[in-house]
Amino acid sequence: MKKWGKLLAALLLLGLTTGCWDRTELNELSITSATAVDRQGDQWIVSYQVLIPSVVSGALGPMKGGAKLPITVYSTEGPTIREAIYQSALESPRTLFFSHNRVMIVGEELAKNGLDELIDVYLRNSDSRETVAVLITKGEGRKILEQLLQIQIIPGDGIRETMRTERKNFSVLPYVNMYKLAMELTSEARNAVIPEIFISGGEPVTSSDQMNKTTMSSKLKLGRLAVLKEGKLKGWLKAEQSLGANFLRDEVKRTVLSTGCGDEGGKNQSAIKILNSKTKVKPVIRGENEPIRMIVDVKAEGTLLETRCKIDLDKPEVISKLEKQMEGEILAIIRDGFKETQKLKADIVGFADLVHRKYPKRWHEMKSDWPEEYSRIKLETHVDFTLKRLGLTSKSFTKMFEQVEDEKK
Length: 409
What we know:
By secondary structure, the chain is an alpha/beta fold.
């Protein structure tokens, strides 16, 4: 009887367990690698870069009818973003799957009207990951999704890797994902930035025939930095100005700058690679009517990549002059970038948070008028640069060449 009782209990428990009642098979999904969102009138237009699994697995190999493209791009529209997405059921046999979405391209017109609804969608729905990288483009975002890449099979992956490579090796543009964008727009300053992407060159590359060449007529390229105030596009920073803002944000990993030859004069005669950089910022408020002072300390070190200067790099005083010159270059870049943000009255470097933490009472007094307060801030910047390495030789080839010529004479 005990055995039959145990068996009956086991059967009852099996009846209570749930199975995979809501499963979705892989062949029922459309995996998106990139999306774009635009706005036309009162309609949202959402575009999708969808993978074609059979082609991706063959790595663009020849199939029936010749080489096939790894992606297809199409758009849907609706009065809300999610309705526009669900409109895809009218024209696609598969359900859109966004968990592998790599980048989100935002059209300029949409950015001018505000990104609050778009961010709400990403933070509200579980199938949309807030780690997706965000970029902005002039014109329609769909055009960016249609552009093919040669090195990367999947363009969406290629765009994200380009952003990561730029951030790691050049640091002009910050890497911005949806979560970071939301955090910056809800910070004390309520300002944020988004990198620009555009099609550089001539005719867009959208067919396999255009891909079968050593040189493509156009390519995707990162450009300026878009500045957002309270979620809306308000202006742009050039690449060098963006680098200056990145120094203040302490987001410069590595970059390359050109400088002159010290006492010899000339410009852009030497290239120096910054290997690491650290920025510390401290707010100082004295009198009630005095502008806020920001004490900025930048410490960086780097290596000499090339030089056309006729200098003797074995002399410590020569190295010291190069270091001073680099300090001047970094200082000028920071000042130029900061001045442009003050013109826009957009605190994209996070000074508001620093003031709030150190002077909470004063912050509540100036919070409502922070854009004006920010435009009056005085920047006191100190740069300490150390040239750690000179490369494989301490001699300038230009000077060595001249010495050989003098000996011949």
